[in-house]
Design goal:
The complex is a heterodimer of chains A (about 160) and B (about 110). By secondary structure, chain A is an all-alpha fold. Chain A has six helices and no strands. Chain B is built from four helices and no strands. The chains are: A mainly alpha (about 160), B mainly alpha (about 110).
Chain lengths: ~160, ~110
């Protein structure tokens, strides 16, 4: 049962990720990236990471992709204005990506454990456990990330502001 | 779903995230629109997140999920700043083609 779900989710993930690459219109790229994020959230639920699945949906599909959509609409990008590389460069890019994939697979073949047959805990993805980790072991990075957010907010407002001439 | 970890070997998750990462690399090499390149970087970050979550689930240790949380935070900040930069670039050269932006190339 869960193998079937895994295969369906993986196929959807890969198809929508390829859709990001090969869509002519940037709008369709954004939409297929949103589909990809939804399927990745499905994978998180399969892996007992419920909190992360929800955060992933809210942050990526809810915030980041809306930002992308707004920028694509604001810049008025469409298939006609879309720059394209020559087919030689595209071919070279596909070959390079394939060789990278081959290298990773070859390095995985050396020493990968199969399924862990340990008594696996299934509650590690709940808010309670993650929150306890976040506010005890990882308190300093958590606070620093708030400063990062503040500086990113100020920086993006300053960068996107129109300069007076 | 407790039986996911028992019935699916971890190699499948490794293969899936390696493939997603390679798709992201291909996109960065293939496309010329800067927004699409930013989206392909997001794809690569997502594949790494999936890998971390799978290791955390198969080891029964939630540290990996905290790391994924921080990666999401950094990705959100990165996208906000990157898109603001793109907006100001577009205002200056009226294009998001990366081949126009070759002033720093030598």
């Amino acid at each position: 049962m869960s193998q079937t779900i895994f295969f369906i989710l993986s196929a959807l993930t890969i198809i929508s990720a390829l859709g990001v690459l090969f869509a002519k219109n940037p709008m369709y790229s954004v939409l297929s990236l949103i589909a990809c994020f939804f399927t990745v959230a499905g994978h998180y639920i399969m892996l007992n990471a419920q909190f992360l699945a929800i955060v992933h949906l809210i942050v990526y599909a809810g915030a980041i992709m809306v930002l992308f959509l707004f920028v694509v609409m604001l810049l008025n990008l469409n298939a006609e204005t879309e720059p394209h590389k020559t087919s030689k460069i595209k071919f070279a890019a596909v070959i390079a990506g394939g060789i990278l994939f081959l290298t990773i697979i070859a390095s995985l073949k050396a020493g990968i454990p199969g399924a862990y047959h340990l008594p696996v805990k299934s509650n590690i993805g709940l808010v309670e456990i993650i929150g306890q980790k976040l506010f005890t072991d990882y308190l300093l990075p958590f606070e620093v990330s708030s400063i990062l957010f503040l500086s990113a907010m100020i920086g993006s407002v300053l960068l996107a502001k129109k300069e007076k001439r | 779903m407790e039986n996911t970890i028992q019935t699916i070997p971890q190699n499948w998750y490794l293969l899936l995230s390696a493939f997603l990462f390679c798709i992201g690399v291909m996109g960065v090499l293939m496309r010329r629109n800067a927004i699409i390149i930013l989206m392909c970087i997001e794809l690569m970050l997502n594949s790494v997140n999936l890998l971390l979550v799978s290791f955390s689930a198969y080891k029964g240790n939630s540290d990996g999920q905290v790391f994924v949380f921080f990666i999401m935070v950094v990705a959100a900040a990165e996208v906000a700043v990157g898109l603001a930069l793109l907006m100001s670039i577009y205002r200056n050269v009226a294009s998001t083609d990366i081949n126009v932006l070759n002033k720093l190339k030598w």
